[in-house]
Amino acid sequence: GNSVTQMEGPVTLSEEAFLTINCTYTATGYPSLFWYVQYPGEGLQLLLKATKADDKGSNKGFEATYRKETTSFHLEKGSVQVSDSAVYFCALSLKTSYDKVIFGPGTSLSVIP
Amino acid sequence: NAGVTQTPKFRILKIGQSMTLQCTQDMNHNYMYWYRQDPGMGLKLIYYSVGAGITDKGEVPNGYNVSRSTTEDFPLRLELAAPSQTSVYFCATRTGVHEQYFGPGTRLTVT
User: Do B56 and A89 touch (CB under 8 A)?
Assistant: First the structure.
């Protein structure tokens, strides 16, 4: 079946540290891949996306590259800030499916000053 | 342009009571979804709709019902509330390129 796996959290980093959150997927077909972010007390917001292999999504200093050969979409940021503290969700959507997006379990990130 | 709005923001129900969570969108998106998010967990899909008059079950539909009479509105009905339905409920819409837009959520406690 289709699924998304993320590294377990919580992740705690010092300000200006390098961030990597691993995400791998299993899918039939050719999915689009997403990272969503959820700040405390809010709904999910799209952070970045990639729709085909080797695409790089980027936003607010975050980047993720769609790696078909390793079925991965790892999230990276070179220098995190306290304001990046949130829960990050990796997700996939299949182009052949009109109905559902599959989310990973989420990874909680805390950035301390 | 308000996006996706949900009401109420908070609600406390007694066991056995019923209520409707409202969701309204002004983006003219055909696809709409209801998720629940339990503490420390990811999202579980309750119901979804691909257009007015069309709904289908997700992963955890038991104890819930939905209707979709218009493109804008997608209410979620809880019948006979149980403590297991204590959760945060999110409504979302989707564009043709599969990106989802979420409402701010409704925090429900059943005691």
Answer: no
d(CA A103, CA B101): 14
The model's pLDDT over B51-78, given as tens digits with 9 standing for 90+, comes to 999 999 998 999 999 999 999 999 999 9
Q: Contact B98/A42, CB-based, under 8 Å?
A: no
Query: Are A46 and B41 in contact (CB < 8 Å)?
Result: no
The DSSP letter of residue A60 is T
The string of pLDDT tens digits covering residues A90-107 is: 999 876 655 678 889 999
Which neighbouring-strand residues pair with A75? A21, A64
Phi/psi at A84 (5° precision): -85, -5
Torsion angle of alpha carbons A97, A100, A104, A105, nearest 10°? -160
Contacts with A44 from chain B: Cβ below 8 Å: 43, 90, 92, 100, 102
